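2024-03-11 09:14:02 DEBUG pipeline.ingest accepted 1 chain
2024-03-11 09:14:02 DEBUG pipeline.ingest length=223
2024-03-11 09:14:03 DEBUG pipeline.predict start
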Amino acid sequence: MQYTIAGEIAQFARLEFGSGESVWLSKGALMAYSDGVQWQPRVPGGLGGAVRRTLAGEGAALTYAEAQGAGQFALIASNAPGHIATWDLADGPVIATRGSFLAAWGEEVDISVIIARRAGAAFFGGAGLFLQRIAGRGTVLLHGSGDFEQCNLGQGEPLVISTGNLAAFADTVDYDIQTVGSIGRALFGGEGVFMTRLTGPGRVLLQSLKRGVTTSSSAGSSD
């Protein structure tokens, strides 16, 4: 699969299919496509996957698109302003927070919905109880609201993130929460009660705009 990313305020990607190539897309990601591209809703993981995906706020099904011949293309985008980042699964699986997964293709690509490892992070970390995990051999496109900032954490290196600014992170990164530290900060700091705490090793993608989070809330919600 060949691809190019274009745009400034609200980026989109053009996917160039080889004959028989296919791609998983987030719900509603298709902008346009050539006549030889066929697509349908499909649920990775069967009924159990559909239930977990619905609870994750991503919708029960993804879009599965496949080229019926050479020279086919599709234009894909998120429904919000922002940028697109690439994740090579050769570097390991990626955990995508709500609304961050855009597309994935390759060999043996597995898209599953997992439960956050720590209860506190699940309910107060801003990313929700359920997260999408993409593994296998291939490429993932991730959407971030606003601009991206990438951090590469070393072994045991911590990073504290404001709720809603976490887009995606490596499967090797530990995801937890911590309090903002005082009642004054909690009431008047505009960050709520909790911050997200990540601990390396691994790659972290931050988004400059909070996704679906108000200043009075400590948890995110899907658009």
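2024-03-11 09:14:41 DEBUG pipeline.report Confidence is low (pLDDT under 50) at residues 184-190, 213-223.
2024-03-11 09:14:41 DEBUG pipeline.predict end
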